[in-house]
Write a structure and sequence with these properties.
Radius of gyration: 10 Å
Shape: globular
Number of helices: 2
Structural class: alpha+beta
Strand content: 15-25%
CATH architecture: 2-Layer Sandwich
Number of domains: 1
Largest sheet: 2 strands, antiparallel
Order of helices and strands: EHEEHE
CATH class: Alpha Beta
Distance between the termini: 4 Å
């Protein structure tokens, strides 16, 4: 499963990093995916981070 963060939508709230810091990081003002593809054992947390994004900036493909 691969995740992306839409840089145009991301507001840099870091909710994704709080939920799944192994996959998401916020090195600057917006979040980025740092582990792609996401290993199976982390996919549930990454999906939770996607659902928690207040501006729906995270998406995934299987």
């Amino acid at each position: 499963m691969k995740f992306t963060v839409d840089q145009e939508l991301c507001i840099g709230c870091a909710a994704c990093e709080d939920i799944c810091p192994t996959v998401f990081e916020r090195p600057e003002s917006t979040s980025k995916v740092k582990l792609n593809p996401v290993p199976k054992k982390l996919q549930e947390n990454a999906l939770e981070a996607e659902e928690s994004c207040p501006v729906a900036a995270i998406s995934h493909k299987t």
